[in-house]
Every structure is written in C-alpha cells, then in structure tokens.
Design brief:
2 strands, 4% strand
C-alpha cells in the first residue's frame, strides 16, 4: 500500500517537464478512450497510487493527465506500449486516430 508520499518537487518537475516536452514534440497525441480507461484501471489497482491526491507514488504525476498522453509510460511499465511513428498504427493498440481533442 502507498505511504501517501510523492517524490520531491524537483523530481516531479523534471519528470513532468520531460513528459510534456515529448508529448508536445510528437504533436500532442492522446490514447484512445479505451486505452485511457484501461490505464486508469491499471492505476486504480496499483499499490503506488496515492488515492487522496490521484497521483502516482513513483513519478508524482497526476494520473488523470498523464494517462491521456500517448507518449507517456507507466514508471513501473504496467501500461501497454503505444505506437507513435509517422502515424503508423500498430495492429491492436486501440489507437485513436481521429482529430477529436
């Protein structure tokens, strides 16, 4: 069970900044609604989730945001990989290729 302690502010800032820069560089791609739901479910079942803050106890990120970004990974590799390569979609990854925000 999580001890409700997030990483330090410097560590969280570096992690968030790195993830945000990668997301923006790749064109701000989001996962499909199905993958988002699956990611949230994975986080909900994780011992590192800090429920009262809905933050990851490993990286400190707010789950509701980080789980949407196709370019982010779970710090303990629970989420399935997403394909981001010149709009090439890997078969079966539930990628949302629509223009919806």
């Amino acid at each position: 069970m999580s001890d409700n302690k997030t990483p330090g502010i410097w560590s969280m800032t570096k992690s968030f900044s790195r993830d945000l820069a990668k997301w923006v560089k790749e064109g701000a791609p989001n996962v499909s609604p199905e993958d988002y739901t699956e990611r949230l479910s994975d986080c909900n079942a994780c011992e590192h989730l800090i429920r009262d803050k809905m933050r990851c106890g490993k990286c400190g990120c707010l789950i509701e945001h980080k789980a949407k970004w196709k370019t982010t990974k779970c710090p303990i590799n629970v989420w399935k990989p997403q394909t981001i390569n010149n709009d090439q979609v890997q078969e079966g990854d539930n990628t949302d290729t629509s223009d919806k925000a």
